[in-house]
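Sample pair:
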Amino acid sequence: MEVIDSFNFLIGTWVFERSITDHLTGNQSSCVGIASLTETKSELSDGTLRHGDYNENGELRLGDQVVPTRRRLNYSVQNNWSVNLFFLDGRFFTDLDLRTGSWRAIHQCSEDYYQITTTVTSDNEIYEHWQAMGPRKNFVAVTTLWRQNKCD
């Protein structure tokens, strides 16, 4: 599925389910929760005027343990179709361009790296496949996100 504007497509609230297979420990875990991208309009340090706040809150289940999880990122619109994602401290995380319906990216994290594939399966569903590899990380995380509502 083609997406004209990655940022506008992602704005809104999403329900997600994630499965994680840790090949270093042999552990399997799952996470469910809510993710939202909210547009904010103010100038960032890079001069970008359109950007958004990504907030993900959920529960991670590992065996009998259930712990709350949270992830926050800043999205910065780079042109009419793609965005850059940043950690809250301003470090670059990855880029994302969904025009063809699928995007692959690599994120280097010290000696470890992530291969990230994001695929839009419909107007209301996104599939993510993360593979982390290196001396400290070796896991696969598969996430499906379903649009909870459309913010216009």
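Residues 6-10 form the longest helix (5 residues).
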